[in-house]
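Recall that a protein's primary structure is simply its ordered list of amino acids. Everything else, from secondary elements to tertiary packing, is in principle encoded there. The following example makes that idea concrete.
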Amino acid sequence: MKNVYIILIAVGSSILFSCSDEESPSLSDAKKITSFSIDGATVSIDESGKTISAELPLGSEVTALTPTIVISDKATVSPASGEVQNFTNPVTYTVTAEDGTTTSYVASATVVECVDEGNVISFTFDGKNYEIVKETKTWRDAASCAVERGGYLAEINSLEEQNAIYSQIESSSINAASTTAPDGGNASYLWLGGNDFDTEGSWIWDGDNSGEGTPFWIGDSSGSPVDGSYTNWGNEPDNFQNSQHTLGLAITDWPLGSAGQWNDIDHNNNLFFIIEFD
């Protein structure tokens, strides 16, 4: 009988130790920021350096940004996700794991311009400011960039304006091979603000790509100016391959025109462009 009693004590002790182990799980030490997002921003996380970089488009304000933050399971972060922050200076985010250990990330936000200022040539004509941008973009992206910079793709409304712009282009050391349009006779062009996106053959000045603007030409190469508007087409427009709906100012000759004249070309070409400011 004594032997049985001893065995029961041993079994009971084993059960108690087993229960004690199950009731004391280890705490998580996970403490990462796995996602950090701000509306309109391009964000990257450098896990090794514990830094977060957010790039916002020109015109953005960094004084009141609201990050959405995703962190490791069972961790917390301070400042919290969804809290408005002033990113004039970098903001430190501290992540605390379930076990109480911490790590910090330094987050910064910068406003990125759509072009490198080193590729911009500014000039003035008749009291208005212009920029020649020696970076290639599609027509729509160029128009968006022009708006970001406070202007619009240039409108040419007189022979004097045409000559002033073209003279400035000629003195701007442009590499013509860097801004060519294969569908435009392989000539070189800079974007202007004209398009006929809405109705084929109805050309308007719409340098901000708003879909609205002043009409200046109706028809194809045999068409006519609207209300005496200034134009400088080559033997164009011809809507070659039914895909040419935006206006380029040629800086080299092509089979249907010469340098300085206008041509309708595909909006997906990547070309330099001219911005005008009111």
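Residues 117-277 form a domain with the Mannose-Binding Protein A; Chain A fold (CATH 3.10.100.10). The two ends are 107 Å apart (CA to CA).
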